[in-house]
C-alpha cells in the first residue's frame, strides 16, 4: 500500500461519515504493520460528547481485530458535500490514542486534501513531550 493509496482509502472512508451536527465529514485509513488497512469515519451523536473521530474509529476497529502494530494513518476532512480544501489534523484525543499503540518517532500521519496533495508528520511532531505506556512501566 503506497501513501497515495492510503490517502485514497481515507477519502473513501469519509463517504461513510455520520456528521449530522457538525456537517464536518472526516475519513481515516490506518495502515497496520502487516499491510492490513482499516478505514474509519467520524460518528456523531445527538448527545454530542459520545461522538467518535474518524481516526479512533479506524484504530479501535483494528485493535478489536487483534492489531497493535501500526505504520501510518491518513486523514482527510472538511465540510460535508464540498470538495476538501484544507488539511485536517488529528485532534488531541486521537493523538493520545495513537500514542498508546504507535512509536512516536516512526508512526506517520498523512494529512491531505487529495491523493496528490498531502503532508506528512510523525506522531512525535504532533504530540511532543508525550505521556505513554512506558511512563507507567508498560
Ligand atoms: O481530525 C479530526 C477532527 C475532527 N473530527 C470530527 C469530530 C467531529 O465529528 C467533527 C467536527 O469536529 O469532525 C475527526 O473525526 N477527526
Ligand atoms: Zn480526534
From TrEMBL:
<feature type="binding site">
    <location>
        <position position="53"/>
    </location>
    <ligand>
        <name>Zn(2+)</name>
    </ligand>
</feature>
<dbReference type="InterPro" id="IPR016193">
    <property type="entry name" value="Cytidine_deaminase-like"/>
</dbReference>
<comment type="function">
    <text>Recycles cytidine and 2-deoxycytidine for uridine and 2-deoxyuridine synthesis, respectively. Catalyzes the hydrolytic deamination of cytidine and 2-deoxycytidine to form, respectively, uridine and 2-deoxyuridine.</text>
</comment>
<dbReference type="GO" id="GO:0005829">
    <property type="term" value="C:cytosol"/>
</dbReference>
<dbReference type="InterPro" id="IPR002125">
    <property type="entry name" value="CMP_dCMP_dom"/>
</dbReference>
<feature type="domain" description="CMP/dCMP-type deaminase">
    <location>
        <begin position="1"/>
        <end position="134"/>
    </location>
</feature>
<feature type="binding site">
    <location>
        <position position="94"/>
    </location>
    <ligand>
        <name>Zn(2+)</name>
    </ligand>
</feature>
<dbReference type="GO" id="GO:0004126">
    <property type="term" value="F:cytidine deaminase activity"/>
</dbReference>
<feature type="binding site">
    <location>
        <begin position="42"/>
        <end position="48"/>
    </location>
    <ligand>
        <name>substrate</name>
    </ligand>
</feature>
<comment type="similarity">
    <text>Belongs to the cytidine and deoxycytidylate deaminase family.</text>
</comment>
<dbReference type="GO" id="GO:0042802">
    <property type="term" value="F:identical protein binding"/>
</dbReference>
<feature type="active site" description="Proton donor">
    <location>
        <position position="55"/>
    </location>
</feature>
<dbReference type="GO" id="GO:0055086">
    <property type="term" value="P:nucleobase-containing small molecule metabolic process"/>
</dbReference>
<feature type="binding site">
    <location>
        <position position="91"/>
    </location>
    <ligand>
        <name>Zn(2+)</name>
    </ligand>
</feature>
<protein>
    <recommendedName>
        <fullName>Cytidine deaminase</fullName>
        <ecNumber>3.5.4.5</ecNumber>
    </recommendedName>
</protein>
<comment type="function">
    <text>This enzyme scavenges exogenous and endogenous cytidine and 2'-deoxycytidine for UMP synthesis.</text>
</comment>
<dbReference type="InterPro" id="IPR016192">
    <property type="entry name" value="APOBEC/CMP_deaminase_Zn-bd"/>
</dbReference>
<dbReference type="InterPro" id="IPR050202">
    <property type="entry name" value="Cyt/Deoxycyt_deaminase"/>
</dbReference>
<keyword id="KW-0378">Hydrolase</keyword>
<dbReference type="InterPro" id="IPR006262">
    <property type="entry name" value="Cyt_deam_tetra"/>
</dbReference>
<dbReference type="Pfam" id="PF00383">
    <property type="entry name" value="dCMP_cyt_deam_1"/>
</dbReference>
<keyword id="KW-0479">Metal-binding</keyword>
<dbReference type="GO" id="GO:0008270">
    <property type="term" value="F:zinc ion binding"/>
</dbReference>
<dbReference type="GO" id="GO:0072527">
    <property type="term" value="P:pyrimidine-containing compound metabolic process"/>
</dbReference>
<keyword id="KW-0862">Zinc</keyword>
